[in-house]
Batch of 3 targets.
Target 1
Amino acid sequence: MLGRVNHVALAVPDMEKGIAAYRDTLGAKVSDIQRLPEHGVSVVFVELPNTKVELLEPLGENSTIAAFLEKNPSGGMHHICYEVEDIIAARDQLKAGGARVLGDGTPKIGAHGKPVLFLHPKDFFGTLIELEQV
């Protein structure tokens, strides 16, 4: 079911500082900031040869990232995203196996313009899992 790791997402309290750390300090290529009000976040992607790192910053007070940063003021790993070929088939197989899909189970369009779902972290050793259809 799982394909490659699409990205590892890090919540950051200050996007500009996050960009500077990856672009200026580490010398990485960083995308432009993309605002995703439907997800309550602003994102950038750090391009690496084998995957990406996504930096997430809250967009609005109701952002789930804001709640994460309240608990982790310095930021930290928020989720890992795996690619799947068929997100509906993956969802159905996971649910049949007892995994909990967050929300109502309907995929939303993610930052790459593709369908995504999130899986409950309590089912995966405390790690929030995102699935993205490729």
Target 2
Amino acid sequence: MSTPVTRPAAIIFDLDDTLIGRTGRVQDAWLEGIATVPELTERHELPTIVAALDAARGRAWADAQRRAGPALDYAGARAALVADALAQLGFGDDAALAERLREGISHNTGRSSFLNDGALDILNALKASAIPLALLTNGESRTQRGKIERFALEPYFAHILIEEEIGAGKPFKEAYFTVLERLNYAGADIWMIGDHLENDIAAAKRHDIRTIWYNPKGAVAPQATAQKPDAVIAALPELMLFFGVNGEHQNP
């Protein structure tokens, strides 16, 4: 990976699976949520309940275009998903039960998150270098704000844009229009760093944003031009050399 010729005007970071990792799966939050509603396990085995939730989730998000609707109201989307699963499990239209399960799942979403190695080092270095930073993340406000607060990430970013709060998520153009407008820079002056080849790489490239693919597992680089990043890193500290900054800085 070569060093950029010019200093970036701004840098956009993805949150999940880039700055932070997750030890668990979405099903782990479901298991903890299910534990708060004993009526479920009195009638069904855990795998049956998880399978019903998984199937309902698949129906809710089967088409990426559907994110344009449910994404605007994550709590409502999750409530609908839970109600769908409960109906399939034979609980009918039990709104109170659905709300208890939804709340249990929401409470446990994101608890298994952790900061990836080098995340604070590169954020400190970039902030000390006065390069404007933005955070662009999909997800609901409650969950994402909880992670940001838990890891004290807010002081690093001039702009924090969360899908539910801005009314659009990656890879939709409205999300990128919003972050570019907030940064007030031409796309070609900006770099996007993320793990997702469509949401973070291909979508950003459509707006002339330069891209860095965070690829810690060493996945095969894409051949498609639309998804081909400008650079690839396996670890976040590589960004220090790439952007010509050092990590000898204190937390903000």
Target 3
Amino acid sequence: MMKLSRWEGGIVLLSALFLSFTAGWFLRGNGSAEPLRVETRRKLEVSETAFPETTATAEKREKININTADAATLQTLPGIGEKRAKDIVADRVVNGPYRFPEELTRVKGIGEETLAGLLEYIVTEDEP
């Protein structure tokens, strides 16, 4: 067996440390991923351009409780047709009642823009 001097042993040790650090650096994966952020409550602004209905007409209209309304009642909302109304009722049966109106976006086909047009017409609880 060959004996290494102190200098040679130090160089071998430093080389091993460098190689293991380099391998770890390349094998570490994607470290720049965004942390998971959960929004528990948010409030959307009602868009005036989403559905160009006059505010006078909107004030006369009674708000619909999306937790108790049937599909026919939901179809009276702007932007909600027969298919989406049935999807809302089915989603409510599977996932339970909506805690706040913004949860309507969990229904396929209802995005932020559609929701913005619905906010002034819907409620999730009976209002006094």
